[in-house]
Amino acid sequence: MKGKILNKKMIFFFGALGGLLYGYDMGVISGALLFIKNDIPLTSFTEGLVVSSMLFGAIFGSGFSGPLSDKFGRRRLVFMISIIFIIGSLVLAFAPNMEALVVGRLIIGLAVGGSTAIVPVYLSEMAPTESRGSLSSLNQLMITIGILSSYLVNYAFAEIEGWRWMVGLAVVPSLILMIGVLFMPESPRWLLEHRSESAARRVMKLTRKSGEIDKEIDEMHEINRISEGTWKVLASSWLRPTLIIGCTFALLQQIIGINAIIYYAPTIFSQAGLGDVTAILGTVGIGSVNVLMTIVAIMIIDKIDRKKLLITGNIGMVASLVIMAVLIWTLGLDSNLGAWIIVACLSLFIIFFAFTWGPVLWVMLPELFPMRARGAATGIAALALSIGSLLVAQFFPMLAEALGVGQVFLIFAVIGVVALIFVIKFLPETRGRSLEEIEADLRKRTAS
Questions:
Q1: Helix, strand counts (H, E) of the chain
Q2: How far apart are CA 48 and CA 32, in angstroms?
Q3: Can you spell out the DSSP letters for 296-312?
Q4: In this structure, what are the phi and psi dihedrals at residue 228, rounded to the nearest 5 degrees?
């Protein structure tokens, strides 16, 4: 390992790169769908199936990858995830029919589910306490960059309707991740439990000041002394309330409306009369806003309480959805003004989501769970997240067709109010505390 480990910045870059692939594969299908239908006939049901099949795979990927990472290490799982991304991208690029598209998306989903479970855990365990929020937010930044990249690729190939190029180019960042992970260190918390203290210390020196290492090592030893095995922790009564909170948090993030925008924004814009190419260009604008506001989040997330950010985001997202629904009913979806109002309101939604619910979820999930079961518990929460994403991907086009876009976004606004109540009443604050301090407080709180 000596002499072959990346420097600090590159560790976090490659550690978060799985998020870019997740974002790319989530966003690319939105533009590709406009042209896939010209080669491969799709109904509203099969269109939803092609989109949501990735989420079926993600359910299995997130469910299995967490426990596997606790057993074999975060780094090895990321390497396997990069290979699965490559295979799935190639299957999609050469798909001759709808069934092959579904299979390719299922394979991609396995990797997506794995990355949602492993990447936040790895970043959280590698980061020092005082900058854990901003460094863990790199996962969400990479997701937004991946989404924006997919929109740009969609726009570049829109004139030639090159949907196979759109989905196939995911191979490039997958190869970069596969090579980069070979030079990444393993998580120090995993090394302390499965290898040795000296191995953990060597990795911690890459990201922490020397004075902080002894304190963290002592806290980790203390937690190890009182902690049970992974499966016993998962089944324990003291963890159950927090596991339910984490799963609910992840589920709400997905059904609050963001995935309807990511997956179907070009379709919505096209139906509003913007034209296919212009519709894709509109999503590029939304993707750019997403990236910029995530950068803002990274700058402020360690300075403002997590719950305050989430509450602010809830209020802004609900307001933008209600305004959009009212204006659609008033002006109609197919008017030119109505189309641009939709673009403006969806952009406003993205602004509030991107600096609050987007990054804060990925920061808080691994913070909520104890060290012995962090990978497995985060994987279970990621499974709930995938289920939420699946529900939106599969049913949004059918609901929009049956009820109308305005009514569906009003449903998302109601879910936003439910999410606001959940944050205020149930979600604990984690900013400014070490992972071991959070775990000790969790044990004390649930034991009383």
A1: 21, 0
A2: 13
A3: HHHHHTTTS-HHHHHHH
A4: -90, -175
Task: Specify the pLDDT at position 73.
Answer: 84
- At 92, which amino acid appears? L
| Exposed / middle / buried, residue 428 (Cβ in 10 Å: 0-12, 13-18, 19+) | middle
Q: What is the pLDDT of residues 149-166, one digit of tens each?
A: 888 898 889 888 899 999
DSSP states of 197-226: HHHHHHHHHHHS-HHHHHHHHHHHHHHHHH
100 contacts: CB under 8 Å, gap ≥ 6 = 91, 94
Tell me the pLDDT of the chain averaged across its residues.
82
Give the per-residue pLDDT at 5: 60
Task: Report the amino acid identity of residue 74.
Answer: R
**What is the distance in angstroms between the CA of the first residue and the CA of the last residue of the chain?**
44
Q: How far is CA 109 from CA 14, 160, 190, 294, 354, in A?
A: 20, 27, 26, 24, 23
* The amino acid at 329: W
Tokens read off for 335: 């008017």
Read off the pLDDT band of 3 (50, 70, 90): very low
Q: Is the pLDDT of residue 366 over 70?
A: yes
pLDDT band at 432 (very low <50, low <70, confident <90, very high): confident
Averaged over 352-366, what is the pLDDT? Answer: 89
Q: Are 439 and 371 in contact (CB under 8 A)?
A: yes
Residues 173-179 have a mean pLDDT of 89
Residues 6+ apart with CB under 8 A from 156: none
Instruction: Indicate the pLDDT class of residue 1, thresholds 50, 70 and 90.
Output: very low
Distance CA 19, CA 222 (A): 32
Residue type, position 50, single letter: V
**pTM score, whole prediction:** 0.73
Phi, psi values for residue 179, rounded to 5°: -75, -45
16: tokens are 């978060």
Q: How far apart are CA 130 and CA 338, in angstroms?
A: 45
Question: What is the CB neighbour count within 10 angstroms for residue 36?
Answer: 23
**Pair 328, 342: CB distance under 8 Å:** yes
